[in-house]
Amino acid sequence: MTTTAMTHYQAEHFLWECEAGVGTVTLNRPERKNPLTFESYAELRDLFRALVYAEDVDAVVMRGAGGNFCSGGDVHEIIGPLTEMNMKDLMAFTRMTGDLVKAMRACRQPVICAIEGICAGAGAIIAMASDLRYGSPTAKVAFLFNRVGLAGCDMGACSILPRIIGQGRASELLYFGRAMGADEGERWGFFNGLSDAPEIDAHKAAVRVAEGPTFANGITKTQLHQQWNMSVDQSIECEAQAQAICMQTEDFKRAYRAFVNKEKPVFAGD
To answer: May I ask the CATH class of domain 15-210?
Structure first.
């Protein structure tokens, strides 16, 4: 089996750190509110693809530098060039951006976003595609595609966003392109919590995931994603198979032994 060691991965277009099973992506162009470029899109996609095979990362935190999360695609480095492209090149770009979301959903590691300030366009999509989201009172999330003459159906928004906040609320954000404030986002279920230190909240959640039964957590993430396309009966059968697999893990046996001995289980992910 081929595995990838991500602890010493060297990122070129963002910052990457990995410690104690938690990887941290920092979008690091604070002077522009951390916009994405063609290159950073592709490298993020490749990072999450590589995480599928990583044994040294069990959770991922995503954050932005300088008090903002991400302002979306860079106006000068992406938006301008897109207006000059032919259909073939445009399709290559939109498929590439969609592949980032696919890669985030396909890796076994839960992805946890810490969101401050501006979280717009592709930044809002990255937050949406994550498994957990912690925000600050300054957070403003905007799926602003409508405001630049584009459809709201970008990178899976029409599929994923209604499942998080509901069809009517998602429709409002996608039709109007308006910003969703922090309190509104928490009330609607977009944010798992708000605080003045969302990075700390996100890191605590990541550590908790990494210290848990990580093989089983990966199964949970897979099931949460795949069961969108299943009937209830199919889901029940799929979960029966998944749980039987987890019952063969050493972590399951460790939990039993710890319970018998009135101890806290120490999971190892096997």
So the answer is: alpha beta
